[in-house]
Automatic annotation (TrEMBL):
Keywords: DNA-binding, Transcription, Transcription regulation. This is AraC family transcriptional regulator. It comes from Aureimonas glaciei. One of its GO terms (molecular function) is sequence-specific DNA binding. Residues 222-324 form the HTH araC/xylS-type domain. It comes from the Bacteria. InterPro entries: Class_I_gatase-like (IPR029062), DJ-1/PfpI (IPR002818), Homeodomain-like_sf (IPR009057), HTH_AraC (IPR018060), HTH_AraC-typ_CS (IPR018062), INH-QAR (IPR052158).
Length: 328
């Protein structure tokens, strides 16, 4: 029996912004993903026309971005979503062209939802729409983003944060998570699942904390605190008290606590826990020694306590971490 062909409503337009320095491999990857989603959904629904409209938006030679690629040309209207893919270079302090930023603000004011991946968060933050919101970006860019835009709250452990009208995704490859979320939002969970299956991708649900490494702040300029950080790194993960750290710094304990938190963003005990778990991650990745021995080697006498702290800081159990990232 011949399948009845359907004509659906006007499709949602998903615009990929070709801004200066954008990572084109991510743009092309998202382009392919939305093409697959459109094709698979049309086959399943028996639709005669596109269910997703995909465009590439370029600000070249104009104060606003125009479509340089469009799967439903001459349809008019405005994008439902504009995605700022990762930047291939580290975002600088100079920022982006004011006319591009103003155009994004106008699109947002007209109801377009904005989304960023990795360094694309710097362009979105420049529009002001992230002020007062929790966002994420690549874990190596967190300090730069906080310094440039102090009005936003950055959570480097999250891979994807959705506020409805604005969305941010973390590291470079998290464009897959963002793309699948937008497919689910526009076409529904069945379309998202079939696209993920077709592309051999895990559905959304992982977190950036699985992948990040402990990278302590060292460019804060406080020599007394740097002395403590250096000694901790040299001594390794052996147990140490706050009083001992304060004595290494040459500061009174209360003064040391205040300056340590200001310099590193962490309380001394939290810093030391992250340092020890960082060493444990290295050991779990590179060899097959029992988890109990890893716990002891990084200063935990109780393996159960070690597992609890490891899960809290990484989102995985020690054995789960080794299974995912082990190369030994």
């Amino acid at each position: 029996m011949r399948k009845k062909m359907l004509k659906l409503e006007k499709p949602h337009e998903i615009g990929l912004l070709i801004y200066p320095g954008v990572q084109m491999s991510a743009v092309h990857g998202l382009t392919d993903m939305f093409h697959f989603a459109d094709r698979l959904a049309r086959e399943r629904l028996g639709a005669t026309e596109a269910v997703i409209r995909l465009s590439h938006l370029s600000p070249r030679d104009s104060i606003e971005a125009s479509r340089v690629y469009d799967t439903v040309p001459d349809a008019g209207g405005s994008p439902s979503f504009i995605i700022m893919a990762p930047s291939i270079k580290r975002p600088g302090d100079e920022g982006y062209e004011p006319s591009l930023v103003d155009w994004l603000r106008e699109q947002y004011a007209q109801g377009t939802k904005l989304a960023s991946v990795c360094g694309g968060a710097f362009l979105m933050a420049q529009t002001g729409v992230l002020k007062g919101r929790a966002v994420t970006t690549h874990y190596t860019l967190v300090s730069d983003l906080v310094r440039r835009f102090p009005g936003i709250s950055v959570d480097p452990d999250r891979l994807f944060i959705n506020h409805g009208d604005v969305m941010t995704a973390g590291g470079l490859m998290s464009w897959t998570d963002l793309g699948l979320h937008i497919i689910e939002r526009t076409l529904g969970p069945v379309a998202m699942a079939e696209t993920a299956r077709f592309m051999v991708l895990d559905p959304p649900g992982r977190e950036q904390v699985f992948y990040s490494v402990f990278a302590p702040r060292l460019a804060h300029g406080d020599d007394a605190i740097l002395k403590v950080q250096d000694r901790l790194a040299k001594n390794g993960p052996r147990d140490v008290t706050v009083s001992a750290m304060a004595s290494w710094s040459g500061l009174e304990e209360r003064t040391f606590m205040r300056r340590f938190i200001k310099a590193t963003g962490l309380r001394p005990n939290d810093y030391f826990q992250r340092f020890r778990i960082g060493r444990a991650r290295e050991m779990l990745s590179l060899n097959r020694i029992p988890v109990e021995r890893v716990a002891w080697a990084v200063g935990y006498d109780d393996p159960a306590s070690f597992r609890k702290v490891f899960l809290k800081l990484t989102g995985l159990t020690p054995s789960g971490y080794r299974k995912r990232f082990g190369v030994g």
